[in-house]
Structure formats: structure tokens, C-alpha cells
Amino acid sequence: xxxxxxxxxxxxxxxxxxxxxxxxxxxxxxxxxxxxxxxxxxxxxxxxxxxxxxxxxxxxxxxxxxxxxxxxxxxxxxxxxxxxxxxxxxxxxxxxxxxxxx
Length: 102
Prior knowledge:
This protein has about 100 residues and is an alpha+beta fold. Helices cover about 30% and strands about 25% of the residues. The protein contains 2 helices and 3 strands. A hairpin with a 3-residue loop joins β1 and β2. It starts with 15 loop residues before the first helix and ends in a 14-residue tail after the last helix.
């Protein structure tokens, strides 16, 4: 069996602090010839000044391949979330409706 055909399982460890995550309500994406950089920030959108205050909470650099995989995973999850949200918003059948009333 070729090494590319085998199923791999990741066993990742983290601390409770990292697992808790950080909140971000603004993100930017930049790139160089070799990598993409995602910068996540928490900004105060309620400020009406020309300059919006904020703080960078995380910065992540990815290879082009990792970025492509991240985009694919995000599209997949967005699609699943959208379907679930759409189902939640379907009109419910009226409980008093009966087939014999048509």
C-alpha cells in the first residue's frame, strides 16, 4: 500500500487555555510568494471615529497547500451550516391542517 493511500489519524494535544480560543470579529488575509497570513483581531465597531481601535488576538501563517485545505474545510462547514440553518427556517406545517380539508 502506498503511503499516500493510508488513512492517517492526528493525535493533537493542547492546553485548556488554547482550547478556550480567542474571540475575533475582524480578519485580514495577506500573502507572499511562499505563504498566506491570517490576522485575527477584536475591534470596536461602535466607535464612530475615523480610526477604529482594536487588538490583534492571533496571527497564523500557512503554506499555500494548507491554505487550500483550510478554504475547502471552511466551504464544507459553511455549506453544512447553511443547510442546517435553512432547515430550521422552513415553515412549519399547521397543526390544524388535514388532508381531507383540501
